[in-house]
Design brief:
The protein contains 13 helices and 12 strands. It is 44% helix and 19% strand.
Amino acid sequence: MIDRRTFIGAVVGALLTAPLAAEAQQSVKLARIGYLGTGSPGEMAPSLQAFRQGLRELGYVEGRNIAFEYRWAEGRMERLSAFAVEFVGLKIDVIVASSSPAALAAKDATRTIPIVFVTAGDPVDSGLASSIAHPGGNVTGFSLLAPEIVARQLQLLKEAVPKASRVAVLTNPANRNTALLVKETEDGARSLKVGVQFLGVRSADALDNALSAVTKERPDALLVLFDPMLFTLRTRIAEFANNRRLPAMYPHREYAETGGLISYGASIPDLSRRAATYVDKIFKGAKPADLPIQQPTKFELVVNLKTAKALGLTISPSLLLRADEVIQ
């Protein structure tokens, strides 16, 4: 049995040491990540979830050793610059940019805070890096494009719709990578003997005009080129194509998941998970200038069989067998 004096001493000791323990706990510095998203939280949930999972696998727990600040452009690219400046004012430790436009906005805002982009087109051509092997500066990350990927998309579209001879192509002329993608599209179309017509969408507000032009031209199929802004509009684009019974090829699986016919491209969640490894390296002292830009390693072919049936298309068994996923 504890006597009164011992009990009082224990209570007083606890009261004296508790504030010290709390102070020590509060003094642990959380590494702060600023996540600059091109789309909305809902649209970018799979990518963000994969990135956070990658961090958890490396031992990072929100509230224990890392903290997040989120900013969402929701398809309005003009918002990115102000958000990036805000991150600088908050003294964020690392800025994670979901796309090339987000990374460029961050780069314009700071030359000192490390920036890791999750997906980008050609990072050298767009001005994000000096070279793939040695980015230089404070920016590095993961490229979404691979050589001749558009030609492969056209080939798969032609395989799904053998009679297609005229293809409408949605692009964003404001994207610095568009010129490269357009050339690849023209080269691929030439080899397949397919005619292509490019329709530019510079902003979300311009989408309706471009889709009206598609309706007027009456193409046999639609190809949507890689672009972060178009990605945020994927549901509207897929609904348009399906309502007009227009077979379409898209650059990411997320289009097929929202009802698009077929998609082929690099896995955004895979790149997002890998981006966490670069954030970890930077937290441990690595400099972005010394971290080479990584290329995609996982490509996915997704066929939405439900949409194909609604369009009256019969997808060949050989194409279905090569698909990484068939949505029934």
